[in-house]
User: What shape does this take?
Amino acid sequence: MNVIKTDVLDVYILEPQVFGDKRGWFMETWSQKKMDDAGLYYNFVQDNQSYSAHKNTLRGLHFQKGKASQAKLVRCGEGAVLDAAVDLRKGSPTYKKWVAVELSAENKRQLLIPRGFAHGFLTLTDDVEFLYKEDNFYAPETEGSIIWNDPEIGVNWGIENPILSAKDAKAPKFCDCDIDFVYERR
Assistant: This one.
């Protein structure tokens, strides 16, 4: 597995080793040992999967607050997405900075996002299957979100009118969010 640092502190691109032949391919999508060897310590407890039927569907920017916050390892099993993570940890050298990475069934890349980040993705194709590993259980009472086009954060999605859920369309601006994340040096 190749571990690539991004410009946002503690967010990594993971490139699994893919073994292929005329029959197809095989890859290891998760190895606790390889993660520990890379100095990345996560204990994932929940897997989720979503499906988006149409290109230009945007999901996010989402997070869970407090002790229910979640680290995520995300990948695209079918189709392609632009995946974004925003650092919400007050005191972090990359506070309010974002990184966006194309994840696709073809490139097989994964994005490792620690706790204290908002997360979202834009589908670049129709028929997208998106997979998440999370290190904490879903707790709806702690959900938070930021509007996808927040001017203070400024994620460049490359689109003006994405397909949004009613909930995401009504998400507050960053300045109106009650965010309690604090950066802690490792």
